[in-house]
Amino acid sequence: MAKGDKGATLDVNDSLLKVEQSLQAYKTQLRANGGDPRLPDLARDIKNSIRSIEWDLEDLQETVSIVEKTPRKFNLTSEEVRERQNFIRTVKHKLATLKDESQFNGAEASKKKNTEKQSLLSTSVHSGGAASQYNTSGKTSAAAAANSQFIEETQQQQQLMIRAQDEQIDNIGASVKVLKNLSTHIGTELEEQHGLLDEFGHEMENTGSKMDNTMKKIAKVTKMSTDKRQWCAIGVLLVLVVILIILISVL
Question: Mind listing the pLDDT tens digit for each residue in 123-181?
Fold first, then answer.
């Protein structure tokens, strides 16, 4: 129990370090380019990682609660149990901080994106007002704004298509795995049936050999004289043959 507990603690520490690194990279990209299309995916990965750590922490909390009742049973001292409890509290505090930072930066990214859109709209409105004085310049600005919007919509559609293709690939992979397991099961069944057929063939050969020996004995007996004792022997052999046939049919 103690070794598994330490292993879980190390796993939580590693996962927590990875989340902190991902969040730092997310902040860097956000400051450099708030309109980067990869930012939403990165934010979603960070949230999923935090949720996974929370689940691991719940399992660790249950383990520590069990150990806390009878620490001697698991070769642990009270000090070691307190260390694990302190570790759980520290990780919970860090997770709360990371969740707040990820939510704040997500809101900041949305705010920055909205600001850029408003700036673009203001530029478009300003260009539209100036069009009454400079018609040619106004048309150029409007065309540039429309082109920018078209590019943004095209990128969003491409991202949706890529996600849909990824989901289809995952579904195909799952189907291939199911078919592979099914083919393996069928192969195993065929091998077992082949073994049963081989055993049945050997039994048939043994039975045929026994029948040949019996028929030879009967033929030998029929060549004897018609003495009463000999006919009794023939009758006994016939009874044995009938019993043998019944036993073969039962098997």
Answer: 444 444 444 444 555 556 666 676 677 677 777 777 776 776 667 666 776 676 777 77
Is residue 169 situated within a structural domain? no
CATH of the domain at 38: 1.20.58.90
Cα separation, 218 vs 212, whole angstroms: 10
Cα–Cα dist 159/39, whole Å:
13
Handedness of CA 147, 153, 159, 165 (dihedral sign): negative
**Within-domain flag for 136:** no
- The number of distinct structural domains making up the chain is 1
Which residue matches tokens 């990820």?
A: 102
- Max CA-CA distance within the chain? 142
- Is-contact 103 29, C-beta < 8 A? no
